[in-house]
Amino acid sequence: MKTVYILNGPNLNLLGLREPEFYGHDTLASVETLCLAKAQTLDMVAIFRQTNVEGELVNHIHEAHEKAQGIIINAGAYTHTSVALHDAIKAVALPTIEVHLSNVYSRETFRHHSYISPVVRGVICGFGAQSYELALDALSTILNKKGKA
Ligand code: DQA
Q: What is the dihedral of CA 88, 121, 53, 83, to 10 degrees?
């Protein structure tokens, strides 16, 4: 059974309350429930985490290196600022998918640049909570291919 870490950055604990025109009405707890159920259908175990602290996200990425085969990350605003996250993802070299609930390219220009995009396998944005489900599908395909000779 493959394990995937699903990591969430700052302010995502406020989902449901926060700018519903961008992020919808799902709460983080409902996104977690959706992800755990989706992972089960793919025979994967999902470990779901959220932190508002950049260094803790770095630590979670390091932990994933020990305990998981892949990472899905919504780094929130750190996406657009964090060299430390870029370095951590590069260092652990696990297949990683970057996700965003909103379509960051239809929003302010400061959201158009991601420090982590160059070191991930792919980016999924704009589908609300479904972005996470699509990322789980993609990661499952990547990990199942990897297992084959
Ligand atoms: C976000 C987009 C980011 O620009 C923003 O800072 C977030 C959420 C998203 O999921 O759409 O916090 O990552």
A: 50
**For residue 36, how far is its CA from the centre of ligand 1 (angstroms)?**
21
Owning domain of residue 84:
2-148
CATH of the domain at 57: 3.40.50.9100
* Nearest ligand 1 atom, CA 12: 12
- Answer yes or no: 23 catalytic: yes
Does the pTM of the predicted model rise above 0.70?
A: yes
How far is 143 from 55, CA to CA, in rounded Å? 27
Nearest Cα residue to atom 1 of ligand 1: 76
pLDDT digit string, tens, across residues 63-78: 999 999 999 999 999 9
Active-site position among 5, 60, 78, 100: 100
User: What six digits make up the tokens of 6?
Assistant: 């699903």
